[in-house]
Amino acid sequence: MAPALDKDYVLKTIEERGIRFVRFWFTDVLGFLKSFAVTDSEIAEAFDEGMGFDGSSIDGFTRIEESDMVAYPDPSTFQTLPWRPEEGGVGRMFCDITNPDGTPFDGDPRYALKRVLAKAADMGYTMYVGPELEFFYFADSETTEFLDKGGYFDLTPLDVASDLRRETVLALEKLGIPVEYSHHEVAPSQHEIDLRYCDALSMADAVMTYRLTVKEVAYANGVYATFMPKPIHGVNGSGMHVHQSLFTKDGNAFFDASDPEGYNLSKIAKHYIAGLLKYAPEFCCVTNQFVNSYKRLVPGYEAPVYVSWAMRNRSAMVRVPMYKPGKEAATRIELRSPDPSANPYLAFAVMLGAGLKGIEDELELMPEASNNIFHMTEAELETAGIETLPKDLGEAIEKFEHSQAMKEILGDHIHEFFVRNKKAEWSEYVAYVSQWELDRYLSVL
Questions:
Q1: Which residues of 401-411 are buried (b: 16+ CB within 10 A; e: fewer)?
Q2: pLDDT in tens, 294-345
Q3: Which of 50, 54, 189, 418 has minimal Cβ neighbours within 10 Å of its Cβ?
Q4: 114-436: CATH topology
Q5: Is 16 known to be catalytic?
Q6: Is 86 known to be catalytic?
């Protein structure tokens, strides 16, 4: 990421580049990006006093009778938007949301992540993450018409969207977001751009920027990009595999060359993984938050459904990628269950919170899943002590609602809203009569 910017640098840049508007960005609890524009003449005052707005119109914020909220821009996140004209350009900054008295607002997802990061810092850790977000390009937002029939790592002529990916990568780099890889994914018209790992708060901001940038570039080229987890029956869905590690002042806390089991994993890493495994069914409602998320989490499409870990086994929910000799700092773990529709602030918060609980409680790590878990029988899974993730949003809500750990990690405000919102979504879905039901039953019953 680019070096942190301060207020004076931002004000000077706005003046020198003739920037007329700066968009203040923040997210609602579900992770939808919200924004309002502030003129250049108001920015200096906004740094000192914030900008007031009506929070009652934002999902998960406040009720109408307590609607006043204040947005304080974070100068370290200032960038100009590359898809807007250079002359009279437009900047953006992410904001921290406070109550009118200046106290942090409990419903702000960015604050929820900051709170867990502060706990990690008190324990001596900094969280680094590197997510891999997959998405589909379609001809428009009304259909699922493919742009290509390419597959994993295919190159042109099958991959007609390579120019779209290239344009997106260049736009991200202009926004100060380094990209590690970009390639065609396994399904037709499915693509992936991987961001270079950095601290969790910067990465959550980057994921929000990434999703908008992918969509803006697609829109400018007359097509549509979607991060819907499973838009098409019968093909692989889109995931957000999250590589993560903890660092201390002495280096990577996950690496231990003297690991007696030969994994080169420290006790801290093993406790952290055990925490992820224990709490994954409870935080699934956050990392996989929509009805459609569970159409992806089914056996047979590479998405993990079994709570397990392994070194190389990609059917496991948590994988420990092999590192190159001399690259001990790259030791990390990969959580493969989340999807790209998740709110990144809350997703990183629950992952870190679960891992820290594993460390605090010194949870013991279950044995590595060495077989292809998808081929194991229910009896074999039970013998191995391997449980499954929730099979649908209804089950995920139930586990999340009754999780004391999730309430503690996210705070009462976000936890209560999330449960209420997801229950409403699930009730609406359960009552809906689908085309599948009409095709199956109407002519025979």
A1: bebebbbebbb
A2: 999 987 666 788 899 998 777 789 999 876 666 777 899 999 999 999 999 9
A3: 54
A4: Creatine Kinase; Chain A, domain 2 (3.30.590)
A5: no
A6: no
Q: Which of 165, 184, 211, 241 is catalytic?
A: 241
3-state secondary structure of 52: strand
Positive or negative torsion for Cα 366, 370, 374, 376: negative
In the chain, where are the structural domains located? Answer: 7-100, 114-436
Q: What is the second-level CATH architecture of the domain 7-100?
A: Roll (3.10)
Instruction: Determine whether 92 is an active site residue.
Output: no
- Average pLDDT, rounded, for the chain: 90
Please, are residues 44 and 11 in contact by the beta-carbon 8 Å criterion? yes
Which helix (H) or strand (E) element contains residue 205?
A: helix 200-220
Q: What are the tens digits of pLDDT across the range 144-155?
A: 888 877 655 555
Concerning whether 380 is annotated as a catalytic residue, the answer is: no
Which SS3 state, helix, strand or coil, does residue 223 take? coil
- Does residue 132 carry a catalytic annotation? yes
The distance from CA 90 to its chain's CA centroid, rounded to whole angstroms, is 26
What confidence score (pLDDT) does residue 119 get? 98
Name 97's Cβ contacts closer than 8 Å, sequence gap at least 6: 26, 55, 61, 69, 70, 71, 72, 104, 105, 107, 108, 110, 111
Chain segment 252-305, per-residue pLDDT in tens: 999 998 999 888 899 999 999 999 999 999 999 999 999 999 999 987 666 788
pLDDT value at position 1?
41
